Amino acid sequence: MAASYLSKSNKIIINNIKLSKFYMFRSLNHTSSVTDSVFSRRLIHSTTPPPLLNHAGIETGTFYRGFESVSGGRRSHTATSFSEEIDQLPVEAPLQQELNFPGGKVKFTPKRMFTPGSNEERTNCYRVLNENGELIVDNDSFKMSKELAVRMYTDMVTLQVMDTIFYEAQRQGRISFYLTTIGEEAINIASAAALKNIDFVFPQYREPGVLLWRGFTLQEFANQLFGNKYDQGKGRQMPIHYGSKKLNYITVSSTVATQIPQAVGAAYSMKMEKKDSCAITYFGDGGSSTGDFHAGLNFAAVMEAPVIFFCRNNGWAISTPISDQLRGDGVVVRGKAYGIPSIRVDGNDALAIYSAVYEARKMAIEKQTPVLIEALTYRAGHHSTSDDSTKYRPADEIEWWRDDQSPVKRFKKWIESNGWWSDQVEMEHRSSIRKQLSQAIQAAERVEKPPVADMFNDVYDVPPKNLNEQQDLLTKHIKKHAQEYPSNVAV
Amino acid sequence: MASSIIQRIGAATSFDTNNNYFHRRSFSGRQSSFVVVRSDGANITTRLKPNGGRTHHLVTNAVATKPHTSAASKPGHEILLFDALREGLEEEMDRDPRVCIMGEDVGHYGGSYKVTKGLAPKYGDLRVLDTPIAENAFTGMGIGAAMTGLRPIIEGMNMGFLLLAFNQISNNCGMLHYTSGGQFKIPVVIRGPGGVGRQLGAEHSQRLESYFQSIPGIQMVACSTPYNAKGLMKAAIRSDNPVILFEHVLLYNLKETIPDEEYVLNLEEAEMVRPGQHVTILTYSRMRYHVMQAAKTLVNKGYDPEVIDIRSLKPFDLHTIGNSVKKTHRVLIVEECMRTGGIGASLTAAINENFHDYLDAPIVCLSSQDVPTPYAGTLEEWTVVQPPQIVAAVEQLCQ
Q1: Is B135 one of the catalytic residues?
Q2: I want to staple A300 with a disulfide (CB 3.0 to 4.6 A). Which of A74, A305, B144, B173 is the partner?
């Protein structure tokens, strides 16, 4: 229904929904038996707003008006249409018959056929670069500037090196926790590259590459991981829970998929203020099972909100494989159920992701519609530093995906084939990043943690009395028993 | 009376000096122990330590008022409570284009209790948004919209439905300002009817204030009269913190004359309903009316109860409450929450901790029993605290 009404104004759509919501309620007890003309008279109505109902029905807020106008009188302009249909209802009904149910015209069929749960063939996956880094499509139909391609690749490498070094730092006990993006570098960087900085990002937690692309420095990453006083989040969140208002990237919240309806809300606010931007939210295959996912997609479709739903289907939700997470053809088919245009994309193909997100953004803003993108990929690393995935999946499977299907390798082959990159440059870049990272880590480690007094700020805009009291108590206690507490943390 | 004052002062100096906050308050309290604190900010600033913004908030937001039951200087207009809420909403939406409303049936239906009636035709379907049925989702939507610049008012059709939104309210609404290091603020207002109605069944008779009170980062207020409903609604919308405004299903048709001129109340302030000397009765929302009814009986019996509508459920206005306790030395809390873990339980703890030495008797808390609200009218009536119970409790307390 949504598609046919996209061109109409919001008011009409909301009216329709109101009417149809009501009609659905009222017609609950009736069967759609077309042979019973009394019944069919009741059920036949139009979903285009009868002009009379617009004001009268709405002002008094009494819904039975609409119903009575159909069953009682001929006020509704569907009078002529339904009387025609009544005439067309002989005992031997022709096969082509339809009815204006709430929600739109539906054709009838005497064939009792259950649509199978899944098709023989799965939805096709959009891919532009093959494993050898060769363009499958015509070179002319896909153009990307050297500058952009090299910048994308550089950031993918930076992300890879960053992940390796920070992961090691956790293993050495320097930071408490970390989670890598290995295998999903293309998703991170390419999708970020296709957006603009004004687009609001609602991440899950495996998207630091988006921040990296937008300008978050390695030092800022390190500061957050160490929770020192320079951290944007003031040391209040776990590692990898980055956030930056400046870069329009909402602080990561540990709860799974709660960011999905929040992204819809942001898109709604952009729609209200008629901004030339969209919202994007990332989540995994696991996140697509949550209630928030379903409600969020439904809302976005109903509200025609400019939001991109990016599902990183990497096959694993900690130890739950995709076959235990869902049945049906992945996440992309769900878009259709909600009335949302969707696409399945090769998550290891940076160019395909870039192209899909670029187009999705255009669609979202110009047509004011949500878009669902499912990127198929593989979580080549462990879920986090608290996980050892070899416990639940074969090591050679991990290796194959990590090495053979590596998005970084694939993209490298492509830019090398264009003469835009070389091994020498790669070596230099990697070693430069490694050096910067180790400097950043050392610096971040040395910076002191936020003061205890800061613990009570930002709970509210201004600390209330009870928090001030609690702070006072704590400060006095620490001062009195200073030897029991670390001396390098300011009070 | 005089002897008890001297005793009180004597007792104050012998406090354990480790209890510093207590000590500080006792000094400030002594100077003004018998001044009745009205619901205006004027008296408060002189006594509170100037520890920053909160006192300034008290001054700028509060309005110096006389108890509004007395004749106003200008003729106001008579209004029902749901309409007063709507008036507050409308004024704020006129004032700030970023204010918007979302919830089920708030648009053309006008809201389940008509609080948003007429707003959708005036402001459009986008600004007064009808949402599908998923409280977690539209609460999340409101939070996301708030983080990106809007000031949404999220309506739960019944407060009980907001239990579905608990994850978003607790983990995101309350926390994101803090965990983002102050980068993102969430100026939402979450409101809706709650409390025990007339035979609405257990699931529609919830007292959510008990469940939400622990969430750090949110504020909670409960309105009880058209006057404070409008004032608190406006204050909640203007606040940059997430505020949960509790309305009561049975109070929507209360009528009162409220001022024509604009006024905004203070979110953290309690309201002095009836000054008195013998006992402090603390209550909020619908129970205020049961208390006032009991007060009539008590006055006839010769008692002089002081009735305070605490209004601010999180944080408690311990200043007003404290002054009252220091005057009467007896406290009765009357609430609609269940006995376990309700607002009364927290308030009892807070008063005991802070004003223990001023109490002549243990605090008595009258609450609903720990049972789901039954449907049968007679049973339902007995789960809610009734005036005769309040009278009996006061008599017992004042022996």
Answers
A1: yes
A2: A305
